Amino acid sequence: MTKRALISVYDKTGVVELAQKLSQMGWEIVSSSGTAKTLASNGVAVVEVADLTGYPHILGGRVKTLHPSVAGGILARRELPSDMEDLEKHKIQAIDMVVCTLYPFEETVRSGASLDDLIEKIDIGGVTLLRASAKNYRHVTVITDVEDYGAVLEELASDGDVSLETRQALALKAFALTSRYDGTIHSGLSSELGISEEKEPPIRMPLNLEQAQPLRYGENPHQAAGVYSLPLSDLPWEQLAGKPLSYNNLLDLDGAMRGMALMQQETGAVVLKHTTPCGMAQGSSLSAAYKKALECDPLSAYGGVIGLTRTVDLETAQEIGSHFTEIVTAPDFQAEALEHLREKRPSLRMIKWNGGRLSPWQITSTWGGILIQEDKPAPLPTEGSGEWIGQPRPDLWDDLVLAWKAAYLSKSNAIAVVKDGATVGIGMGFCSRLFAVDFGTAQAGEKAKGAVMASDAFFPFSDGLERAAQAGIAAVIQPGGSVKDDEVKTKALELGIPMFLSHWRTFRH
């Protein structure tokens, strides 16, 4: 029985060679429109879909392959006598292979095309062909990727057929493609129609992720990993130098970018380790800000990640190059700074961040399901947006805001101590807020005297303020909201520590 392949591709790469080799193996080629013309002009004998169906293309080419003679030939179950009787009764020829690449909807969106053009680039017939042939993978080989042409031809040449294992893999690849394609249409049309902004998590969220970059392994060597992107989105950074990024690098890079976003109005630097800051500062120059951030905890900064809010100059590059660092990320790098770091630290990963991010949602996988929440920053505190308890300290306001940012970026429970535009102590990731206060003030040491302190959540008891007073803290910023707020406020007044209530909790788990 003659084998039959239906070839309908938008991307013509390699299709002539594929069809020629199939023909040489005795396959009959069925095709339509542009693909048929391409094949025929290159000497491939082609049966037009219109001749197979006995029905012309209509609606300006919108309807070509949507016909029982095509769908029946693909979907017929060869082991089922009734299906084969239907084929014979209606004179439908079985189709054993479908080769199809879809209209480039994503490229059309990226080109800035009009809504009408986008709609015309929504492939209907192609997706139907792929789903039908993938559904009937026991009998039909479906090819969606030019890269698979060679492997399929090799199997046909060596074994005379395509193995069930290969057909299964190709079918799953086809379903993944159509799923991604639908997700891209959803994203593209949502944006074009102006309804892409969701105020709360939608009932259904099509993720349709595609690997943007493979990774050597995950958090540990026994875990496989990759970084994935959503439809119509690109990674918001470019690697300029250094070793490939790892899973842990990307987690830390995320923290660095969040720190840079918090300090974007200032010349600032953040040094992170294991996704949480070990130093954060702002200064009159980038190198000054970096040195102040590093001084907070230079021991933990070893092998850390640096985020900088301004273009890296040579002076800053020289400072960075004198320490072992895994990643430095910034809006840009001066040529001489880039060259210096490439020579001094060839393994250092240098990342140019464009300020963007992939999704407005934060998505976390748990054993109990996928958690989704808005990836929405809390507003920066302003003196008019909160409440002072005790005598206001406008002279310490800039330090209070920086402390708030450092606590915001740190893992909960978090306490940040800041003096003269730099963190001098950070207590993060503690199960007890009191322990976080103790750690942060102990790390600050004598620098805690006259410094300010921020907490990412309310003080459940007044003991945290008492420890802050013992360390010499001059002012505190915290969100409030505890059932014991009145007790904490009374203690602040009693201790003479001005306290600003921002009313915004900033937990980070």
Automatic annotation (TrEMBL):
Can the keyword Transferase be found in this entry's annotation?
yes
List the pathway annotation: Purine metabolism; IMP biosynthesis via de novo pathway; 5-formamido-1-(5-phospho-D-ribosyl)imidazole-4-carboxamide from 5-amino-1-(5-phospho-D-ribosyl)imidazole-4-carboxamide (10-formyl THF route): step 1/1; Purine metabolism; IMP biosynthesis via de novo pathway; IMP from 5-formamido-1-(5-phospho-D-ribosyl)imidazole-4-carboxamide: step 1/1
- The record's note on its domains: The IMP cyclohydrolase activity resides in the N-terminal region.
Any transmembrane segments, and where? none
Q: Cross-referenced InterPro entries, in alphabetical order?
A: AICAR_Tfase_dup_dom_sf, Cytidine_deaminase-like, MGS-like_dom, MGS-like_dom_sf, PurH-like
Q: Which UniProt keywords apply?
A: Hydrolase, Multifunctional enzyme, Purine biosynthesis, Transferase
PROSITE patterns found in the cross-reference section: MGS
What's a single GO BP term from this record? 'de novo' IMP biosynthetic process
Gene name, please? purH
Q: Which Pfam families does this chain map to?
A: AICARFT_IMPCHas, MGS
Q: What is this protein called?
A: Bifunctional purine biosynthesis protein PurH
Does this UniProt record's set of keywords contain Transferase?
yes
The record's similarity note reads: Belongs to the PurH family.
As one GO molecular function, the record gives: phosphoribosylaminoimidazolecarboxamide formyltransferase activity
Where the record annotates domain MGS-like, the positions are: 1-144
An example GO CC term for this entry is: cytosol
The EC code for this enzyme is 2.1.2.3, 3.5.4.10
According to UniProt, the reaction catalysed is:
IMP + H2O = 5-formamido-1-(5-phospho-D-ribosyl)imidazole-4-carboxamide; (6R)-10-formyltetrahydrofolate + 5-amino-1-(5-phospho-beta-D-ribosyl)imidazole-4-carboxamide = 5-formamido-1-(5-phospho-D-ribosyl)imidazole-4-carboxamide + (6S)-5,6,7,8-tetrahydrofolate
Classification via HAMAP family:
PurH
